[in-house]
Amino acid sequence: MTQFTIDHQTIQDWIERYAGIPAMKQNTSYPQLSLGVIFPDQTEDEGFTPVTWEEFFEIFDSVPLVFVYDEDTDSRFIDFVHPAKLNYA
């Protein structure tokens, strides 16, 4: 089931459950930074650079963003979206 949260501890716990580390990359299409997660089995370089949790959440809060994730499966599906893009209906 897809979940949404802005809670820092929930986000950090979920990412660490899958041995992920917080990351960011400079988006060439937009001036703002893009957040992401580096998982240990990633083979493709997606341009992400590891960052501290403090840096990660500073960007997360300043944009602002919502963490979208799947809680009920072993899926590592995640997304970071602006609250205005969520459909709560």
- Calculate the terminal CA-CA distance, rounded to whole Å: 16 Å
Number of domains: 1
Shape: globular
Q: Which structural class should the secondary elements be placed in?
A: alpha+beta
Beta-strand percent range: 25-35%
Number of helices: 2
Number of strand elements: 6
Mean pLDDT: 85
Keywords:
alpha+beta; 3-stranded antiparallel β-sheet; 2 helices; 22% helix; globular
Describe the structure.
- This protein has 89 residues and is of the alpha+beta class.
- It has one domain.
- Helix content is 22%, strand content 30%.
- It has two helices and six strands, in the order βαβββαββ.
- It has helices at 8-17, 53-62, and strands at residues 2-5, 21-26, 33-38, 49-50, 66-70, 78-81.
- The strands form two sheets. A three-stranded antiparallel beta sheet has the order 1-5-6, covered by helices on one side. A three-stranded antiparallel beta sheet has the order 3-2-4.
- A hairpin with a 7-residue loop joins strand 5 and strand 6 (78-81).
- The longest helix is centred in the first third of the chain and has 10 residues, at 8-17.
- The radius of gyration is 13 Å and the shape is globular.
- The mean pLDDT is 85.
Helices and strands in order, then pairings?
Blueprint: E1 2-5, H1 8-17, E2 21-26, E3 33-38, E4 49-50, H2 53-62, E5 66-70, E6 78-81
Antiparallel strand pairs: 1-5, 2-3, 2-4, 5-6
